[in-house]
Write a structure and sequence with these properties.
Layout: E1 2-14, E2 18-20, E3 23-25, E4 29-31, H1 39-52, H2 57-60, H3 73-86, E5 89-99, H4 109-120, E6 127-132, H5 138-141, E7 145-156
Parallel strand pairs: 5-6
Antiparallel strand pairs: 1-4, 1-7, 2-3, 5-7
Helix pairs in contact: 1-3, 3-4
GO molecular function, one term: metal ion binding
EC number: 4.6.1.12
Protein name: 2-C-methyl-D-erythritol 2,4-cyclodiphosphate synthase
Length: about 160
Amino acid sequence: MRIGHGYDVHQLVAERQLILGGVEVPYSLGLLGHSDADVLLHAICDAILGALGQGDIGKHFPDTDAAYKGISSLKLLRHVVDLAAGQGYTIGNLDSTIIAQRPKLAPYIGEMVDKIAVACAVSASRINVKATTTEELGFEGRGEGISAHAVVLLQRVAED
């Protein structure tokens, strides 16, 4: 088995959709980035890539490549999961945390878990997503951005 940790942060700005965990969350601000800027999925991708010893999301999907402009981060996650599968690994479990003062994310977490599980080709029981605030401390607490952490355990695929 292999373990990886991922972290990402994006700035909140006007005139962007807020996409977290592959889910559009209604809010007046969205995350700034070259892709859809899904901070949660980016942290998950980095955790998987880290467990594989394959660098980070910027190495695989550079923001200088027009092919990734506005791309759904679910597509990036599927690609990273395929890389893991190509090396004989599947997700044993994934634990993640979104750090945001606003908006309240609890109503969307179930849908995020389901979308992540489908992209990772595993049961939703292997995926955990949490959300927390910072009690108005730091850039997340001031509403300037959102960050996310993810930890993944990769296991060798059982052969029949």
